[in-house]
Amino acid sequence: MSRPLRIEYEDAFYHVMNRGRNRQTVFHDPAYYQAFLQGLDEAHKRFGLEVQAYCLMSNHYHLLIKTPRANLSRIMRHIDGLYTQRHNRLKKRDGSLFRGRYKAIIIEASSYLLQVSRYIHRNPIETKIPLVDTLEDYPWSSYGCYINQSAPPGWLNRDAVYGELASHRRYQAYRQYVDQGNDQQTNQIYHQQQTPSVLGGDNFKSAMKKKLADKNPEISLKQIQPPTTLPEIIKAVADYYQIAIDDILQTRRGKGARNLPRWIAMKLCQEAGSARLADIATKFNVGHYSTVSQTIRRLNQLMQDDKQVRSA
What we know:
- The chain has 312 residues and is an alpha+beta fold.
- It has helices at 30-47, 72-91, 109-121, 143-146, 159-165, 170-179, 184-190, 202-214, 217-223, 230-241, 245-249, 260-271, 277-283, 289-305, 307-310, and strands at 12-19, 50-56, 60-67, 103-107, 198-199.
- The chain has a five-stranded mixed beta sheet with strand order 2-3-1-4-5, with helices on both faces.
- Strand 2 and strand 3 form a beta hairpin.
- The longest helix has 20 residues, at 72-91.
- The chain is globular.
- The relative contact order is 0.11.
């Protein structure tokens, strides 16, 4: 049975969540939480992701996000896939981490954005045994940023949620709103055995049904088509370094051989071209996609250590 198509369109809001397989722990200590947050930062820079709110629990996560480029699937493939790699590297293990495909609820902002943000932020004290006495004490959510207790990262956008408060004293107003607790309707929605795919009024639900009915795979691919093609990126790098394209596409033999233009082209194909590692591996005549990941990681480290490489 095929998976249901995602409803993706520009500036859509979603509540996205996923949990570990068999409810296993996915965040073991601060290094793991930070690795996941790093992935959000990278998704923001590469795919235009706007994170409205987040809460990372030990065995699952909640994200309230906006997708200006209509590319939810690409964003989440990056976030879940990259974190799985980083988790396994830290844990010195391999294999899948999450229970499967993420759950995404599309949200009518004017009706549910504020309530969903509150539901997400209240997670640490809504457990059977609260994780903290007060929400501001929980370090792995955006609640502290919302009440001005901690500085927000550049990828966190609070404006839409604050806008629903209609208050000039936004920090105090948001704290008071969250302290009221989840309303009965929100609790009923999230405690159903099968949570809905759409949160909104009748008109919004009808509009989403029409989008799904009209969904054409060719249109969907066009919506998330990367702005720059891989051949364009490779040619631009070859022109910059004044070398032949084949010098970039072919592997240099020999232990310790370094082909900086090739490495940079791989990195740009991932970041500017939004290409999958497997597609990059094929384009660059690499046997396995993991080699591409290792090459990009090696380049990132080199850029940190060498100013000349960083300015290249």
